[in-house]
Amino acid sequence: xHPNITKVLFTAEDIAEATRRMGAEITADYAGKKxxxxxxxxxxxxxxxxxxxxxxxxxxxxxxxxxSYGAEASSxxxxxxxxxxxxxxxxxxxLIVEDILDSGLTLSYLQKNLRSxxxxxxxxxxLLFKEGKQEAEVxxxxxxxxxxxxxxxGYGLDYAESYRELPYIGVLDPLVYGK
Length: 179
Ligand code: PRP
Description:
The chain is of the alpha/beta class. The protein has 4 helices and 9 strands, in the order βαβαβββαββββα. Helix 3 links the parallel strand 5 and strand 6.
């Protein structure tokens, strides 16, 4: 285990199992439909890569980059589009893929923004959901794990751009971010 991690919350095996389950649900729900995974960089890129390989069917991927945290440990509530989708999405079935739903401000903004472009449907798949933290109305159809209110890193999630490479999700030692 990395020396700055105090506890592993979800092992690589836990994550693989959740990803398989979510992939099977998505496969069943979108049977016969063409699906576009909208991946929110950077945190979700590892989850998206694993999830996409668990979906059987006609599936494409595109990427968005938004910023809500910077190097801070908590949400500022400010959402800014840094990179937009490459193609129009009118009439498409979208599935937003997120690594973590915390305040919900990022997803709430994204859902509104994407719906205004007239897709056929917009749903959300998130690996982690921090219960009781939501400040904005969000509907999430596919969920990996409910996550305790800790500073979690690994499997794509960072602190100041580090720890994304960890194969598991763990709690960062508060000494690292000076709490
Ligand atoms: C994280 C995460 C979500 C967002 C969730 O991204 O990937 O996009 O925060 O938080 P919210 O529910 O409070 O809005 P972050 O801004 O840390 O960027 P990153 O994915 O590039 O690390």
